[in-house]
Design a protein that fits this description.
The complex is a heterodimer of chains A (296) and B (263). With 296 residues, chain A is mostly helical. Chain A is built from 14 helices and 2 strands. In chain A, a hairpin with a 5-residue loop joins strand 1 and strand 2. The two termini of chain B are 23 Å apart. In chain B, 77% of the residues lie in helices and 0% in strands. The chains are: A mainly alpha (296), B mainly alpha (263).
Chain lengths: 296, 263
């Protein structure tokens, strides 16, 4: 009996010694490794048996945890580029298992557009979801926003917004189709969209992500207002943002929450060196390249 | 047969299986917290987790109660004393099956009540966009129970031919996995995507499709989770399929068991 107790005590001691380095190892495991690799959807369908919805929800939560972990790292001044390809693969896999899973569409919409710039892929996924979630106005609303803001396909956007309006029963379609279906309303469109996303979001990591982007667009909008005021007063387009600050039209000076610098393109459109993404700051050479989607 | 049914139920309770289920059901308490991790469908996730937990517990019951019930009686030589009474082997086996099936129904009712409580709680905290259709949820749990009763019948069939618990337990698990994908496999071999498959494989897949139980029809989770309308005609067909298929399995099991040599 004493011998068994002694062995048990030794095992307990060894466990105490082992558990700390073991936990540290798991905590510091590379992120990509943490997100892991999943078998093909066909294999998952077989293994999941009658728990396809559960497996789909697990995949979405896995991506969400991973992304939340990355944001926590960025708070600690450690920038780890997210493995967007794996995130996309997992979310696409989850909707193949459960085509009704709203979390997957919602989260994919969040990063496939702003971060990965795969607008077509995002809308294809939303179109796929619309075939199943026939009652949901969010999906056509997202697709409408992508069409108008990123793809500049106003005809498609109007159709999506029309559908969203019909499903929601609100004045959404008229409001969005009428007010924002023009180039000049792009920043305002993004502000309305992002404000709605921030309001409806409960997950702290995702909410923070939207909030940072909303603040960046609010700053861009301030510059646009100052630019238009400058044009009214001087009858010419300002060349730099600093000009607007010096003339007292822009106070306090704009600050890009992504760490970039706002500037004005030759045609007066507002752009930023960060391209509205963490780690997106590049040298002066990129200033001239001006990605259209980040100009206002 | 009625006595065997009651004895089976008593035996299951005496083995503290019900207490085991109650301990496992404590996992229901974690569901609201886990579901709150969802961004847009907290209620749907709590429904998913609740229904999957019920399904998992019923699977364990079906495999272990169904797979070991007859085998244990033969192994412990209980069958000698029981079958010495004026009772046919068929009645004994059917009684055992009905007792186990009744226990699974009882367990699913109790777990169903726990699931209703959990989902009500989650939806009270985070109101769902979609209305929760309680009747669909109840039908989903009922059909889940029917599926596992069908699996118990398969386990009994395996038990009648087996001399150890390996075939009933692992055979039942294999049947469960195969029965969940037979529909997909059948649709695949009949689609243009299977052009490269040989006709022999296609024919084999078709034969297996008709022989193996089709559990896909019993899975109504997606209807319950997202409040989708239930296909009434489909449910009637599935119920008829259940009755006929279970009749076939039990008839085969009864014939084999009545001819089995007991040592």
């Amino acid at each position: 009996m004493m011998r068994t107790v002694s062995i048990g005590m030794v095992c307990l001691l060894l466990y105490g010694i082992l558990i700390l380095p073991f936990t540290a190892y798991l905590k510091n495991k590379p992120f990509v490794e943490k997100l892991g690799y999943i078998p093909s959807v066909a294999a998952l369908k077989i293994v999941a048996a009658d728990h396809k919805e559960l497996v789909a929800a697990t995949l979405v939560l896995k991506v969400l945890m991973y992304f939340g972990g990355l944001l926590a790292k960025s708070d600690a001044q450690v920038t780890v580029p997210p493995d967007y390809m794996s995130m996309s693969r997992l979310l696409h896999g989850s909707v193949k298992l459960d085509p009704y899973n709203m979390d997957a569409y919602y989260f994919a919409q969040g990063f496939l557009t702003w971060d990965v710039k795969q607008y077509k892929l995002a809308n294809d996924l939303l179109d796929y979801g619309m075939k199943y979630r026939t009652w949901d106005w969010y999906l056509p609303y997202f697709a409408g926003f992508n069409s108008a803001f990123f793809l500049k396909d106003y005809a498609a956007a109007a159709k999506y917004y029309q559908r969203a309006g019909e499903l929601s029963g609100s004045e959404l379609s008229r409001l969005l189709a009428g007010r924002f279906m023009q180039e000049s309303g792009q920043t305002e469109l993004a502000l309305v969209y992002l404000s709605a996303m921030v309001r409806g979001e409960r997950n702290p990591a995702v909410k923070k992500n939207y909030l940072v982007r909303l603040n960046a667009f609010k700053e861009a909008r301030r510059i646009e207002v100052a630019r238009d005021r400058y044009r009214e007063i001087r009858g010419a387009v300002p060349v730099t943002v600093e000009q607007l600050v010096a003339d007292g039209l822009l106070s306090p000076p704009p600050k890009d929450p992504y760490g970039g610098m706002f500037y004005l393109e030759a045609d007066g459109k507002v752009a930023t060196t960060s391209k509205f993404a963490f780690g997106g700051v590049t040298g002066n050479s990129s200033k001239k390249s001006g990605v259209p989607d980040e100009r206002h | 047969m009625k006595h065997i049914l009651i004895i089976t139920m008593k035996g299951i309770f005496r083995d503290r299986v019900f207490q085991g289920i109650m301990v496992t059901a404590c996992a229901f308490l974690l569901i609201p917290a886990l579901a709150s991790l969802s961004m847009r469908q907290v209620t749907e996730l709590s429904l998913t987790l609740s229904l999957s937990l019920i399904s998992f517990i019923l699977l364990l019951l079906a495999v272990f109660l169904g797979g070991t019930s007859l085998w244990k009686d033969i192994e412990r030589r209980y069958t000698f004393s029981v079958l010495g009474l004026p009772l046919s082997r068929q009645s004994y086996m059917i009684g055992r099956f009905c007792g186990t099936a009744l226990f699974v129904l009882l367990a699913s009712a109790v777990l169903g009540i726990a699931a209703f409580a959990v989902v009500s709680y989650s939806s009270a905290i985070y109101p769902a966009d979609r209305p929760i259709v309680w009747s669909t949820m109840a039908v989903c749990i009922l059909f889940d129970a029917l599926k596992y009763i069908l699996l118990i019948a398969t386990a009994f069939l395996f038990s009648t031919v087996s001399t150890s618990f390996f075939l009933p337990v692992f055979g039942t698990i294999a049947t469960f996995l195969a029965g969940g994908v037979t529909q997909q496999a059948y649709e695949f071999v009949n689609s243009p995507a299977s052009k490269s498959l040989s006709p022999l494989v296609k024919k084999l897949a078709a034969i297996l499709y008709f022989i193996l139980p089709n559990f896909g029809a019993f899975d109504l989770k997606v209807n319950a989770i997202y409040g989708l309308p239930l296909p009434v005609d489909g449910l009637l067909l599935t119920a008829a399929y259940f009755v006929v298929y279970i009749g076939l399995l039990l008839s085969a099991a009864a014939v084999i068991f009545s001819r089995r040599e007991m040592r």
